[in-house]
Amino acid sequence: MKRSIAAATLAALFVALTSSAAAQWPLHPAGVPKGPDGQPNLAAAAPRTVDGKPDFSGIWMIYNGPDAGDRADRPPRMSGGLNLPLQPWAAELQRRRAAEGGLNDPDGLCLPQGLLQYHVDPQPLKIVQTATQILIIYESNYGLRTIYLDGRKLPPLGEPQPFWHGYSVGHWEGDTLVVESNNFRGVDRDAVKNGEPSSFHGVGWLDHRGTPYTEAMKVTERFRRGNYGQLDIEVTVDDAKAFTKPFTVRVVQRIVPDGSELIEFICHENQMFLKLTGRERR
Which of 41, 76, 189, 213 has its CA 20 to 30 A from that of 88? Predict the structure, then answer.
């Protein structure tokens, strides 16, 4: 119980410190459409690149409020209460991880987070878009993803060294950016017996509930920017080793129009999580 409380306290502290620090950075809004009242017009048309593609560049934050896209024919919004189609071994591992109260969540261990963790994290992300690649920089733990748009194909499983963030390639289908990712560093299903080996702590966490994924996971994301202020992302997870079938969830991000920038997040600087949970190296 003490460890669970410590983990929860630390997570709250991270958010509080980030929020207070963000207010200290100078604001430099640029190119923000304004309405008649002089306020940012988030419903204005989405910007486009010189080649006519939607431009996803900007600072974005998760949005969990009501949205017109929440319809019965759309995938459910990502939340902690979703009932995912887990294989029995994966369901048991997720239960054990959740019972620990986030003790081995990679976020608290200063490790890269799982893909869905990044999508729903309360800290902002920054998208930098060029003609040949897109960079997504996550303020949380300074995560960095590279999405290649130069026509390369997704490599076969096991060909490149597995990456924490996977290997990602993208292509355009009209105004939708389709991103396919594989070669993730997942948990070894066969190594998980009576407990999770220490070498797998923080590995293969898809979300903050501890939902596991394996090296077989493939993720397909569909990014759409229907207007200036909203980024709609559908995420399909396909991992036959961990799930009984593929599933799709939806995430909504909103632009941060006030000119804010990401702040520097050095997770190990003054890091107290290991000490608070009794695992500090001596």
Answer: 76
